[in-house]
Design goal:
Number of helices: 5
Order of helices and strands: HEEHHHEEH
Shape: globular
Radius of gyration: 14 Å
Strand order of the largest sheet: 1-2-3-4
Distance between the termini: 41 Å
Strand content: 5-15%
Number of strands: 4
Helix content: 25-40%
Length: 139
C-alpha cells in the first residue's frame, strides 16, 4: 500500500531531524498548526506509528536543542495528502513546546493557520482567541 510505504520511509530514517521543517507562510506571516490530533499522533498512548524505541524522546530533544517543532506526519512531504506542513497538535500541547520558536511566535502574535487533516481546509485566525475557546470547552 502506497501510504504505508511512505510512512515506513519517514519513520525508518531515524537520523532525519524534522524540527525545522517549514510550517510558516512567508506571505501571511502565519504559522500552520494542525487543528486536532490525528488518530495516529505520536503523542497518543501506545506506539501507533510503530516508531523505534526512544524516537519521540529524541524528536523532543532535537526540538528543545534547536528551538524547533514537530511536524504532523500527515503534513510531511511525501505522505500523500498534499497538505502544507503544520505543527503537530500533540506537540503544541506538550510541556516542551514552550521551547519552540514557532510556538512562542503563535502565542505572542496569534497568527495561526489551522490545518484540518481530514478535509484539507486551512483556516486563518487568532491563535490566542482560538486557544481560549478550546480551554472554555474543556471546562
Amino acid at each position: 500500500m502506497k501510504v504505508r510505504q511512505d510512512l515506513d520511509d519517514i519513520e525508518s530514517d531515524d537520523e532525519k531531524d524534522y524540527s525545522h521543517a517549514p510550517v510558516a507562510d512567508p506571505e501571511t506571516w502565519r504559522v500552520r498548526l494542525v487543528e486536532d490530533r490525528c488518530t495516529t499522533c505520536v503523542f497518543r498512548a501506545g506506539n501507533l506509528m510503530n516508531l523505534s524505541p526512544g524516537r519521540v524522546k529524541q524528536m523532543l530533544e532535537d526540538c528543545q536543542k534547536n528551538q524547533g517543532h514537530i511536524v504532523c506526519h500527515q503534513t510531511l512531504e511525501g505522505y500523500g495528502k498534499g497538505l502544507p506542513g503544520g505543527i503537530c497538535r500533540g506537540f503544541e500541547q506538550h510541556p516542551q513546546a514552550v521551547d519552540s520558536a514557532a510556538i512562542r511566535y503563535l502565542r505572542e502574535t496569534g497568527r495561526v493557520t489551522l490545518v484540518n487533516t481530514e478535509t484539507g481546509e486551512l483556516t486563518d485566525m487568532d491563535y490566542r482567541l482560538w486557544k481560549k475557546g478550546q480551554q472554555e470547552t474543556d471546562e
